[in-house]
Amino acid sequence: MIKTIALLKRKPGMTREQFVDCYENRHAPFIRAMLPGIVDYRRNYIDPDDARVFPGAAPVDFDVITELWFADQAAYDRAMALLAEPDNWAALVADEENLFDRDKTRMFVVRETGRRVAEE
Predict the structure, then answer these.
(1) Torsion of CA 67, 78, 2, 83, to 10 degrees
(2) Is position 116 within any domain?
(3) For the whole model, what pTM was predicted?
């Protein structure tokens, strides 16, 4: 499996409730339709009333941690090729402009290791 993680900040002026509603009801379905190779797609919203940060850690400067899984490298590569198509890229940017502070987006591919504690 290939996993990507994105740390995303909502657009200035947008409430948390508007952000979650827009992400869940417009952006997530848009992404799923554009990238049919997604195996799993999770949005982990930061709770602003309980955003505990370890002493000395940087403050939380994003609103959601998004996780996308692809079955394998080939599925990931197909998804990235679809995104790179000019019409798809323009549609993605236009949609994100309504939701995210795109200058603060951080996205990366990770390799998961280990097992769930219950499995150990």
Answers:
(1) -30
(2) no
(3) 0.86
